[in-house]
């Protein structure tokens, strides 16, 4: 993306919102997902108004993004991380398929063995000394983004006697300010653990689950180097991606 891109941030006419099927969004209280029992609100939610500063800033500029910020294979130490190299790419679009430019997209993930670089992650898989597991980029004028990373490993978690999280990447999408943040997860086509995951099972409709699964994209794969997966993020409307923190979208 360059400074003279043909579609500046505010040039997209978003128009009226399309209604969406709110049944796509998981219920806050889902006993099959154990931690939701203690996290679910026990009282009605209260909507808080936002201020102008929360709605309009701070903005993210191109000069805040480093050359390797979207390259998780090299951006920690400069030495290559261990694991299956993949390209994870897509577009951030509105309900009519129009790309949203200058959106800050951040990702974080476990390493190829299924372990996060976090002091509270006690999984037996070893840490990769050259992999931090996080990256960021700004979308281009057409809403496109791209990350080079390793495919994350599955890992066990104490939901029940033998629960495993599928391979997944966490996504954070910022709008024009910190108050406009959406968070979701991306899974990978063909992973048999998706249908077994208690978190995924909280999503009521199959189409909603499928919208979180990135299909293999052989057209973007690099021969003798890496496979590619495409994960498009729809911000509003009936086709909107399922977000963890705001069912109404951005």
Structure description:
By secondary structure, the chain is mainly beta. Helices cover 6% and strands 22% of the residues. A 5-stranded mixed sheet has the order 3-2-7-8-9, with no helix packed on it. Strands 1, 4, 10 and 11 form a 4-stranded mixed sheet that branches. Strands 5-6 form a two-stranded antiparallel ribbon. Strand 8, helix 3 and strand 9 form a beta-alpha-beta unit. The radius of gyration is 18 Å and the shape is globular. The model is unreliable at 1-14 (pLDDT under 50).
Task: Please describe the topology of this protein.
Layout: H1 35-39, H2 52-56, E1 85-93, E2 104-109, E3 134-138, E4 144-150, E5 155-157, E6 163-165, E7 168-174, E8 181-188, H3 206-210, E9 213-214, E10 227-230, E11 233-234
Parallel strand pairs: 1-10, 1-11, 8-9
Antiparallel strand pairs: 1-4, 2-3, 2-7, 5-6, 7-8
């Amino acid at each position: 993306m360059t400074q003279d891109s043909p579609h500046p941030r505010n040039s997209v006419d978003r128009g009226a919102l399309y209604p969406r099927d709110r049944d796509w969004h998981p219920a806050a209280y889902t006993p099959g997902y154990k931690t939701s029992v203690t996290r679910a609100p026990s009282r009605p939610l209260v909507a808080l108004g936002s201020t102008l500063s929360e709605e309009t800033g701070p903005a993210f500029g191109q000069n805040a993004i480093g050359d390797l910020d979207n390259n998780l294979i090299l951006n920690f130490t400069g030495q290559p991380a261990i694991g299956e190299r993949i390209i994870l790419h897509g577009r951030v679009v509105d309900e009519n398929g129009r790309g949203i430019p200058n959106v800050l997209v951040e990702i974080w993930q476990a390493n190829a063995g299924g372990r996060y670089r976090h002091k509270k992650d006690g999984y037996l898989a070893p840490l990769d000394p050259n992999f931090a597991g996080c990256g960021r980029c700004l979308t281009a004028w057409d809403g496109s983004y791209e990350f080079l990373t390793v495919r994350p490993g599955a890992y066990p978690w104490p939901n029940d006697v033998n629960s495993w999280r599928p391979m997944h990447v966490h996504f954070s999408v910022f709008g024009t300010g910190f108050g406009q943040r959406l968070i979701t997860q991306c899974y990978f086509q063909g992973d048999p653990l998706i249908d077994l995951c208690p978190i995924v099972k909280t999503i009521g409709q199959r189409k909603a689950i499928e919208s979180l699964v990135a299909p293999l994209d052989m057209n973007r794969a690099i021969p003798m180097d890496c496979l590619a997966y495409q994960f498009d993020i729809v911000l509003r409307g009936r086709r909107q991606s399922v977000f963890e923190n705001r069912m109404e979208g951005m």
